[in-house]
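fold description:
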Amino acid sequence: MIYSTHYSSPIGSILLAGSEEKLVGLWIEGQKYFGDTVDEVMTENSNLSIFTATKNWLDKYFAGQKPAISELPMAPNGGEFRTAVWDILCEIPYGEVITYGDIAKKMAARMNRASMSSQAVGGAVGRNPISIIIPCHRVVGANGSLTGYAGGLDKKIKLLELEGVDMSKLFRPSKGTAL
């Protein structure tokens, strides 16, 4: 059974989803792919220890602290490729950014391949079901473009600013599908 609860954050309402023991989803209200990795009906239950732990983690994060991703037991639902990309996202240090191309190179190395498509990586990053904690907001384009964020570019910018990222070399794209 999958349970859900809400968390009120500085960037809007957040839906948390989890089993009794693990977090399976964290979506910013209105984000693209909202809840799409949970196939069953979620039952509201705010009293689970996983939700208490996640809300405490988020409280620390939004207070400018650097809680460790490893503090939370998570079970994001995805295939082998997506899960491997999400694992790389978890390696991005707080307050730093990485490019889709950098992730593609890491994936190619892990898969023993000569190269990997940045677009395939982008698809996996965009489908991350545990936003913020699995830090997909820390991924940018090779030219410094903030590109897309399923939760919205304004929220991506706020999260990066909260983490103290140097925004001087980053920019909001003026056109494209990633707005």
User: Anything to note?
Assistant: Residues 9 and 58 are 8 Å apart (CA to CA). The two ends are 35 Å apart (CA to CA). The domain at 80-169 is CATH 1.10.10.10 (Arc Repressor Mutant, subunit A).
